[in-house]
């Protein structure tokens, strides 16, 4: 937003350059309303050309008198004007043209602009501010910047004046950019604004406030979040949101010394019911089960639907067995269908906090293990026990072997090409990690990455990937080959949060002699959400180095408009789970379309992951997606095969 002000100033000086000896004076508005006290609202910009031309200096009294005379001579009350020194008629004419241009911009720009004095009293506003805030100019000029406004933050809570961008800019003397706030207008309507404020603190001017309507973007962002975090059929939280809600419940239980029962429920023989009676009956059964569980669950309990016919309920419970019996009795009541009464049953796995798990993921996993045992006998519940915990020992062994693999050559890089959707040409690649265990063979990243995250090993793993990616680029260069576009590298939250992340990344690149412009860093929203202020600084430093920045798995979490506006990313990667279902599912297609539309509005690129079919390709073209990646175009392959298939001579390659 503040690029507008830079543009305004540059245009002003550019237009006035031909009048190099002029003294240009911007005169703030003259109000017809009586004032309680006199404010000095004159800001004078003296051009160096005047002194160079030998123009005699004016004393302060003369300058103020000329400013007042110039203001009275301007057309219209309450407008910004200019006055030039009386060097000659040509200079005056050209300066008048400058004033006219500036006034036109101020009047027609669709950005609200409000100006206050050093006490916070509003002294001017442009026409766009009246339309955005629903307040007339006359009423606007009677207000202060910190009183009489109903403003709410992103959580819907009233925002105290000391948090306003305008107040902070004036009291702290710092520039505040892109503060998101919801304003209730006098007519009762609300509007979301992105507000920036810059302190002037001189010549009677306190702060300049600029704001733009972002209501459509906020609505789109919330729609994405709603679609991504809730099951479309039952409107219950999905697995992603369930983890977050369960984590909150466990923290509360820990503070109050409560036991939490986690129940993973699976409807018995649901597939047979779905296939024999039809999907409409199956959907009705799922919705009815959700409604019954909602009646049973308390206000602060966690209730979610996972894939298919699986539900999850977590609640504080002194008697988990009694809760499991109550759930079974509630869910297994007969159901009336178009073909008659239907008897159903369910299997429930129970895990208890803190005995069976110390965090949300572990508790969910153990409840799932217990549910598998219960399902072998059907229509009953089963508790997790220590015998089921052998997987814990397997994870410890896997972590130990991964630690060895980082140094013994068992880890390898694979590369998957990315393509421009309109031209079909390769425009980059993603670096992927593969592990060939000496006794177990190839181990999936889905198995060993979570282990590395739990053991705090992701910084070492990430740096290993970066070093070996640099080494691979050097080998390709030595063979006279180059990648068209950037090479993408995933950076985990642990690696990004390391206090020396930038320093260590720079050291790796410098040691290898590889330019940062060749890389694109992929981050998830979770990576930047922990400490947004630090994240902005780190991301800015990376962009200054020349690296590309992409937000990975977009749509899977809290897709925040604030992050997109404040963090200096240039690309959104749409998660493959949406792409795989978008042809058959209207809700998944709506998510993809909304993400692409939001990205286009914000000037960001989009890349769809997991593209596997021609139907998906055609649909992504229709929606306007920029780039694609997936098995339909190319599988991840070792460096040698990737070079033979996709790499080109350096003259044909350029970073994206």
Furnish the topology, listing elements before pairings.
Blueprint (H helix, E strand, L loop, with lengths): L2 H14 L6 E5 L15 E4 L1 H5 L7 H13 L8 E3 L5 H20 L3 E6 L4 E4 L1 H7 L3 H4 L9 E3 L12 H8 L3 E9 L5 E13 L2 E9 L1 H15 L9 H18 L3 E8 L2 H8 L1 H18 L5 E4 L4 E7 L3 H12 L3 E3 L2 E3 L3 E8 L6 H16 L5 E3 L6 H19 L2 E10 L5 E12 L3 E3 L1 H10 L3 H21 L7 E5 L2 H5 L3 H12 L6 E5 L1 H5 L2 H14 L2 E7 L6 H6 L4 E4 L1 H6 L4 H17 L2 E4 L5 H10 L3 E2 L8 E2 H8 L10
Parallel strand pairs: 15-16, 18-20, 20-21, 21-22, 22-23, 23-24, 24-25
Antiparallel strand pairs: 1-2, 1-3, 4-5, 4-9, 6-7, 7-8, 8-9, 10-12, 10-15, 11-12, 13-14, 17-18, 17-25, 17-26, 18-19
CATH uppermost class of the largest domain: Alpha Beta
**Morphology:** globular
Please state the second-level CATH architecture of the largest domain: Alpha-Beta Barrel
* Topology-level CATH name of the largest domain: TIM Barrel
Task: Please tell me how large the radius of gyration is.
Answer: 31 Å
Total count of domains: 4
Number of strands: 26
Which structural class best describes the helix and strand composition? alpha+beta
Average of per-residue pLDDT values: 83
> Could you name the CATH homologous superfamily of the largest domain?
EAL domain
Helix share bin: 40-55%
N→C terminal distance: 25 Å
Low-confidence stretches: 1-86
Biased composition (Basic and acidic residues): 59-69
Protein name: Phosphodiesterase
Domain PAS: 98-143
Domain GGDEF: 258-386
